[in-house]
Design goal:
The protein is mainly beta. It is built from 3 helices and 10 strands, in the order H-H-E-E-E-E-E-E-E-H-E-E-E. It has helices spanning about 1-25, 50-55, 210-220; strands at about 70-80, 85-95, 105-115, 120-130, 135-150, 160-180, 185-200, 225-240, 250-260, 270-279. A 10-stranded antiparallel beta sheet has the order 1-2-3-4-5-6-7-8-9-10, covered by helices on one side.
């Protein structure tokens, strides 16, 4: 697993550096490039920082659209799959170019530990380079976690659920190139790795006869580890004025992912089509 993580880390850095380099090689924006709204054109908002300054009778800082903004906070929650969980999360927003011609970018990350002994971490990146020439999207996760598994179909009763522990690593990276105002085409690399698969604390005594084990035996998969790796292509249409808090515009995207047996440790060949439409 160290080999997969090492290759993924190098490729992640290469994606970001390549995107920045390509943008820097072309200094002149397209004449027909969409103009991102100025800060003054945005609807006025009031956030926690504004309230804190008001309470202290402090003036708002001078508007600097190129300045990076950081937000870090503790997180507390609860859901059936994790129980009570605590951690922290952070968000960084910034512009890679002139805010009049470049959309805002964001970096989001967090770490949680749960009542059920799980550790969940992840980092997501959505960055537009200068004049929106490139858009780089990342979804990377690392978890030591567990969840209940069931037989295929909807007939498995809840009482027959098998609790499974495993280590999870995801590396999804896509770089998009703008071909027309608001329209991007891209390609990427996707790796999803489940390792250390084993019975959880609530697993039934019949682990060797669980549907998960039966499926693996029928299809020749390893029971303790499975990896899916392969390239992807994508099409993105984004006319939103602000990807973080849109006031107008639409988003439509399609990603076709191909996972190949033998590619970067992949166990099987299969495909996935992901569609996302927002208004």
């Amino acid at each position: 697993m160290r080999g997969v993580w090492g290759r993924a880390l190098c490729l992640s850095v290469a994606f970001i550096v390549a995107g920045r380099g390509a943008a820097g090689a072309q200094d002149r924006p397209d004449a027909a490039a969409p103009v991102a709204p100025r800060a003054a054109e945005q609807v006025a908002t009031l956030d926690v920082g504004d309230l804190w300054r008001m309470a202290r009778h402090k003036d708002a800082p001078a508007d600097d659209a190129r300045k990076r903004f950081f937000v870090f906070s503790p997180s507390i929650g609860s859901k059936p799959s994790t129980g009570f969980n605590v951690g922290f999360s952070g968000n960084v927003v910034f512009f890679e170019g002139d805010p009049q011609t470049t959309h805002i970018s964001s970096l989001v990350g967090g770490l949680k530990v749960s009542q059920k002994g799980q550790t969940l971490a992840g980092v997501r990146l959505a960055t537009f380079t200068k004049d929106d020439r490139w858009f780089v999207q990342s979804d990377n996760r690392l978890s030591w976690t567990s969840q209940n598994t069931y037989g295929l179909g909807g007939s498995t009763p809840t009482a027959d659920a098998e609790n499974v522990k495993y280590d999870f690593f995801r590396f999804y990276e896509t770089a998009y190139r703008k071909v027309k105002p608001g329209l991007f085409v891209g390609a990427g690399l996707d790796i999803s790795d489940h390792s250390g698969v084993r019975p959880g604390t609530d697993a039934l005594p019949s682990w060797d006869e669980a549907p998960y084990q039966t499926y693996n035996q029928q299809h020749g998969f390893a029971a303790d580890r499975q990896t899916s790796s392969g390239p992807s292509v994508g099409l993105l249409f984004d006319t939103r004025d602000n990807p973080i808090n849109a006031e107008r515009g639409v988003l439509a995207s399609a990603s076709y992912r191909t996972f190949l047996a033998g590619f970067l440790g992949g166990d099987a060949t299969w495909q996935e089509l992901y569609l996302d439409v927002r208004t």
